[in-house]
Amino acid sequence: MDYEILYKTLIGLFVASTLAIVVSKLRGKKLRLPPGPLPVPIFGNWLQIGDDLNHRNLSDLARRFGEVLLLRMGQRNLVVVSSPELAREVLHTQGVEFGSRTRNVVFDIFTGKGQDMVFTVYGDHWRKMRRIMTVPFFTNKVVQQYRYGWEYEIGRVVEDVRANPKAATDGIVLRQKLQLMMYNNMYRIMFDRRFESEDDPLFVKLKALNGERSRLAQSFEYNYGDFIPILRPFLRGYLKICKEVKERRLQLFKDYFLEDRKKLVSTKGSESVNNGQLKCAIDHILDAVKKGEINEDNVLYIVENINVAAIETTLWSIEWAIAELVNHPHIQQKLRDELDTVLGKGTQITEPDTYKLPYLQAVIKETLRLRMAIPLLVPHMNLQEAKLKSFDIPAESKILVNAWWLANNPDHWTRPEEFRPERFLEEESKVEPNGNDFRYLPFGVGRRSCPGIILALPILGITVGRLVQNFELLPPKGMEKLDTTEKGGQFSLHILKHSTIVAKPREV
Ligand code: HEM
Predict the structure, then answer these.
(1) Does the CB atom of residue 325 touch ligand 1 within 6 A?
(2) DSSP letters along 476-491, please?
(3) Which of 245, 183, 253, 187 is nearest to 217 (CA)?
(4) Cα–Cα distance between 282 and 126 in angstroms, integer?
(5) DSSP 8-class letter at 501
(6) Rounded to 5°, angle at Cα 179 from 173 and 181
(7) How many Å apart are CA 16 and CA 35, to the nearest integer?
(8) pLDDT in tens, 243-295
(9) Helix (H, G, I), strand (E, B) or coil at 76
(10) Neighbours of 295 (CB within 10 A)
(11) pLDDT, tens digit, for every residue of 36-78?
(12) Is the CA virtual torsion 133, 134, 138, 143 positive or negative?
């Protein structure tokens, strides 16, 4: 590190913070801020709290400071909301006021400063993107159009695993096959495309770039430059890598998917496209470009959003469900019994069946409760100064709703630390994942809630159902349980180890 630059930076930092204190005193406006640990100059609470603002650490803070608390992370205000009442306030009652998103320096790069949908502020651009994406992605018609494809993909996974004798003895890393399946489920919708195998060079490239994007964006490594802007020059190397990954990734989407699709549509003619035979999501999105509603960059950012928001989240949830079922064999058996009784042994579950299987639904709900893929939701933001209870929330605060704590707080749930699907058939039988109860928000609720819930739930049902119907899922020899250590990121939660799982085929 160049010590002269560091020295000058620290002097600059000192002068800037002194000036900020003087200016705020002169302005004289006294805000009634939410409680929180005592901040120190420049760093705020950063040195006390550290980088890892995960759902469990934030739950501990909620126990100390209450349902709304403020953390000063360098220059940033971070407000943590931890009660169903205040979640309702942020996501529903004041949904417009708190309906924007914060982006940090890294998300600015990956989303072209909010040219996408997920990370754009609440306003006209967001409304337009959400409208344009609804018909091609987020309706029951899409589910009915693509469910046969999803059933085919999990069928292929089952066939592959059955064909591999090692799966029944030493075990395999099931995740790799499920990852290919999830890409195929989504690339069918987006581009009417699929990848034949895990070794397909295009799939390998795509997976690597998406993986890099997620790692770079979810890491805590760059917090210092985000919290203390004057330290940003030290992030130059990190941000350069982010820019390179972003460019290569968008170029890949463009060259190998978007342009290919345009060519295909132009050779087949718009006739067949308009018949609906060929129309996939990107055709609808390109219609919006033709009408001048969005530009081609927006199209690439839509593809970027789906790659992250749809594929990873659903895959993580499937992995968690499998891990819990392996670690709770009696629950796995109970689910298998339900599938055999309701569908008949040997009848492979399809999408319409998922609604006839209450225990399967309960297993999925319980997985999403205990192992929420996005436990703090995607950070919200208030563009203007706002109020929560009697507290003032400074403009442009990052608002984290600790949805995991809402669903795991022992004051509101019976023995929440247990994986017990029965709760959703007994004391919590009225609770649904669509946000009908503010204690349970795995997909958020309100304006910025997850529109992909309509796809995610049937995919989860078909996938978990087929695996349990076809295999007895066990930990590898010599292990009693799978390791379920969590790995959190800026706002993601997945299983740390992609475990080997023994899949013993059942006679069907
Ligand atoms: C199990 C799977 C999934 C989970 C747990 C999940 C969860 C979430 C959560 C918690 C949010 C943020 C809500 C908020 O900030 O208030 C979100 C946003 C979003 N999700 Fe999902 N999601 C899943 C699957 C999907 C799928 C399959 C798609 C697309 C096909 C999708 C697309 C989106 C989009 C576009 C947003 C941003 C909405 C906005 O900002 O207006 N998600 N998701």
Answers:
(1) no
(2) PTT-SS----EEE-SS
(3) 245
(4) 18
(5) B
(6) 115
(7) 25
(8) 999 999 999 999 999 999 999 888 876 556 655 666 899 999 999 999 999 99
(9) strand
(10) 12
(11) 999 999 999 999 999 889 999 999 999 999 999 999 999 999 9
(12) negative
Nearest atom within ligand 1 for CA of residue 316: 1
Determine contact, residues 407/312, Cβ cutoff 8 Å: no
Query: What is d(CA 196, CA 192) in angstroms, rounded to the nearest whole number?
Result: 13
Q: Which atom of ligand 1 is nearest to the CA of 372?
A: 5
Q: What angle do CA 260, 265, 267 make, to 5 degrees?
A: 95
Look-up of token digits 């309100």: 446
What is the residue type of 290? Answer: K
* Residue 450 annotated as part of some ligand binding site: yes
Ligand 1 contact, 458 CB (< 6 A):
no
**CA distances (Å), origin 163, targets 73, 221, 239, 395, 477:** 52, 42, 45, 58, 20
Q: Which of 189, 304, 307, 313 to mutate to test the pocket of ligand 1 (most atoms within 8 A of CB)?
A: 313
Task: Report d(CA 235, CA 1) in Å as an integer.
Answer: 12
How many residues comprise the chain?
508
Exposure b/e, 480-498, CB count within 10 A at least 16 = b: eebebeeebbbbbbbbeee
C-beta 317 within 6 A of ligand 1: yes
What is the DSSP pairing of strand 398-401 with strand 76-81?
A: parallel
